[in-house]
Amino acid sequence: MSWTAALERLLPELRELTRINATVEPSTSILCHCGFGPHNTRVTRNGHLALLGWEHAGAFRPSWEHAGAIIAWAVGQFDDPPNVSAARALLDAYRSKAGHAPALDLTCFSRLCLVG
User: Fold this and answer.
1) DSSP letters along 28-80, please?
2) Other C-beta atoms within 10 Å of 20: how many?
3) Is the pTM of this model over 0.70?
4) Which end of the chain is flanked by fewer CB atoms within 10 Å, N or C?
C-alpha cells in the first residue's frame, strides 16, 4: 500500500483524534522529553538511568508524556501483547517519585499522533 493510500485510510481517525483533542482544556505544561522509551535510555556505570535524545523536548502536559512512555515501554510491537508488568512498573515509579500519576484519558493518547 502506498503512503498516500495509507494516509487516506487513516484520515477519519486522525480527524476524530483532532476533534477530541480540541475539547480538552489546557493545563500546566512541564518540560517533557517527548520520546521517553527504551531506545533513549541507558544505564550508567554507577547504575543510574540516563535519558538521551533531548532534541525533541518541549513543554507539554505531564499526562501526554506519561501516555507516550506507556506506549513506548508497554505496548508490544505489531502483534506482540502489551507488557502489563512494564506498564505497572512505570506507573509505580511515577507514583513513588511524584506522589501520584497524571490522569490519563483518550486525549492523552491522541496527542501521540499530533506531536509524536
Assistant:
1) --EEE-S--SGGGEEE-TTS-EEE--GGG-EEE-HHHHHHHHHHHHHSPSTTP
2) 15
3) no
4) N
- Residues 48 and 71: their CA atoms lie apart, in Å, by 22
Angle, to 10 degrees, between the axis of helix 3-22 and the axis of helix 106-115?
130
Residues 8 and 98 sit within 8 Å (Cβ to Cβ):
no
Alpha-carbon distance of 12 to 31, in angstroms, equals 31
pLDDT tens for the chain, residues 1 to 116: 677 887 788 778 777 777 666 655 556 888 999 988 888 999 999 999 899 999 999 998 888 888 888 888 888 666 778 888 888 888 888 889 888 888 888 878 776 654 44
